[in-house]
Amino acid sequence: MTLSNDRMLCAYKTVLTARLIDAKILVLLKQGKAFFHVGCTGHEVAQVATAAAMRPGHDWAYPYYRDLAFALKYGYTIDDTIREAMHRQGGPGSNGFSMMGHYGKAELSIIAQSSLTGTQYQQAEVTAMGAVREKTDEVVYV
């Protein structure tokens, strides 16, 4: 399959945006305006490619804290990300009450997870089993 120049440029912009947000949040940490961050640097291309193959709001996503580029490509906005990083009201995953990287946005079918890596696997497995049982064409990313 050949990707159009427009799709390649869009993917590149998402990769670059994720990298720049990572850098910005590190500055916010040093300023005491953010309190936690684990970056996605080095993971962006695979995450963007995966999200580009999925259908936000139809397919299910159970990302973990390094999945910033995935979340951005899947429909998270820069504003969503910064609100969560700075623990501000209006953050879609927790309304600012959770640590950065707990991506969650109901209208996109992104399910927020806990800080413990791996806990989202059982939830994703049950979601996938439900999709098979209901004979839907939903995909589950974890």
Summary keywords:
Rossmann fold; 2 strands; globular; 5 helices; mainly alpha; 142 residues
Helix content: 40-55%
Largest sheet: 2 strands, parallel
> Which spans have pLDDT < 50 for at least 5 consecutive residues?
none
What is the average of the pLDDT values?
A: 91
- Helix run count: 5
CATH homologous superfamily descriptor: Thiamin diphosphate (ThDP)-binding fold, Pyr/PP domains
How far the N terminus sits from the C terminus, by CA atoms, comes to: 24 Å
Q: How many domains would you count in the coordinates?
A: 1
The level-1 CATH class: Alpha Beta
Strand order of the largest sheet: 1-2
List how many beta strands DSSP finds: 2
Strand content: under 5%
The third-level CATH topology is: Rossmann fold
Can you offer a commentary on this structure?
The chain has 142 residues and is an all-alpha fold. The chain has one domain (5-141): Thiamin diphosphate (ThDP)-binding fold, Pyr/PP domains (Rossmann fold, 3-Layer(aba) Sandwich), CATH 3.40.50.970. The protein contains five helices and two strands; from the N terminus they run H-H-E-H-H-H-E. It has helices spanning 5-30, 44-52, 68-74, 78-85, 120-133, and strands spanning 60-61, 140-141. Strands 1-2 form a two-stranded parallel ribbon. The longest helix is centred in the N-terminal third of the chain and has 26 residues, at 5-30.
